[in-house]
Amino acid sequence: MSSNALNSQMLDTKGRAVGGTEHSWCRAVLGGTGIAVLAILSSKNPDISRLRNALHQLQNSHPILRSRLHYNPSANDFYFVSSPSPFIQIKSFNHSTTSSILENFYNQENQNVSPLHPILEHELNQNAWNNSHPNHPSFSTKHDIFFASIYALPGARWVLVLRLHASACDRTTAVSLLRELLTLMGAVEEETGSQQGQKEIMMNKGEVSLAIEDLIPKGKVKKTLWARGVDMLGYSVNSLRLTNLKFKDAKSPRSTQVVRLLISPDDTERILAGCKARGIKLCGALGAAGLIAAHSSKCRSDHQKKKYGVVTLTDCRSILEPPLSNHNFGFYHSAILNTHVIRGGEKLWELANKMYTAFTNYKSCNRHLSDMADLNFLMCRAIENPGLTSSSSLRTSLMSVFEDTVIDESNDQQKQVGLEDYMGCASAHGIAPSIAIFDTIRDGRLDCICVYPSPLHSREQMQELVDTMKCVLVDAGKNADENKS
User: Superkingdom of the source (predicted)?
Assistant: First the structure.
């Protein structure tokens, strides 16, 4: 499609060009990163018609969900082009197909885990966008960004999976998407056809929300050319000095795998109390536990100094101009990269306080906004030149955490649709950290979905790391009153 034709189509359908952060995800998704998945385990037979209506209502309410990503080869850029009407279709997998997916997982890993886990991993590795590059043999310039699938399980249970392109779905979007879907599915009364039609007409007038770069308050990203050059050089040089987890296989094709970290409500309460007593958020404790666990696996003896990188993702919606709500779907997170030297023998609370303070200092200086363009630029350059990274691994840091934890309590809506469990995360086998942590406190219990690239890291290796993190967190919670800092 020519640039003029695409611009004309955008004007007719309320579209826009992607922003800088969105563009970096469009580039990264070609290699696998940027696939966001929400998987829901239900004990009730899904009403496909009602589910389809609910998904269509979501698309009507959120124009980005009824958009398609268009690639313009002549401009080497991507565009959201919004459809005037919802179009998502639900793909169904019968018991036989689902059983094949489960058997392959259990035969290889021999793990007694919920069937939700292998289905999540399966969907994380379904890349509908890997042919959006001119060099791909099946090159296409137009792609949906929102997919839905249902998997039938033995025992009259089902898994509903929503898969989205990360440029349209950060963690806040995923959380709101789940809650809005449950509200729509759990509604007792349905709208009449005329009411629904009026709602669709009203919703179709909406436009895709602006990119995060277009909503940053004036002055927040101001940086001289010299300062930008120094910062980019600093990020580049420091990245070469960061310590990675040991790579198991850096040559074979990669996929995304997941391990789950679950902590009992009592231990979770103690950990949160320790955080509250020190005026820090859970992300500080999770990051500290990750560094302690990684260093213990890297250096069996103490006092071997290593420098690690930790990325903290923060939701910018409330500080944009105008401010956005959690119901503004899209990607509105920014990243802060901090480096920390670990010698061995660190105590969790002392390290957690240090890490959280470093993060908040960067945030108070607006580094999450002023460095956004630099990090996006470096991300794209690394994708173009993987050999610049260690073992061509495209690891950006040891781990990533979110500043704020998702809090979720069971409610009547969840019971009404038979919700038993759910898992949500995004893939990490393209350019990403070695382990990305998606944390939720569900009914008082800490539940972390930990995502990593395989076979760069093995499941056994990452399970050991997560188990060590759990021990560190639980032990620190039991001693939360000691050595307050």
Answer: Eukaryota
What whole-number distance in Å separates Cα of residue 349 and Cα of residue 270? 13
User: The domain spanning residue 338 has which CATH number?
Assistant: 3.30.559.30
Q: Two tokens at 192?
A: 């009449």
Q: Is residue 11 one of the residues assigned to a domain?
A: yes
Find the mean pLDDT for residues 449-475.
97
Domain membership flag for residue 336: yes
Residue 481 pLDDT level (bands cut at 50, 70, 90): confident
pTM to 2 decimals? 0.91
Structure-token pair, residue 334: 């920014």
Last residue of a domain, one of 179, 209, 239: 209
Task: Report yes or no: 244 and 296 within 8 Å, Cβ to Cβ.
Answer: no
Cβ-proximal residues to 382 (8 Å cutoff; 6+ apart), any chain: 388, 389, 394, 396, 431
Residue 86 CA to residue 289 CA, distance in Å, equals 44
User: Which string of DSSP letters, residue by residue, matches 403-437?
Assistant: SS-EEE---HHHHHTTEEEEEEEE--SSSB-SEEE
Q: Residues 20, 378: contact at Cβ < 8 Å?
A: no
Q: Tally Cβ neighbours within 10 Å of residue 242.
A: 18
Q: 472 near 292, Cβ under 8 Å?
A: yes
Quick one: 186 and 235 in the same domain? Answer: no
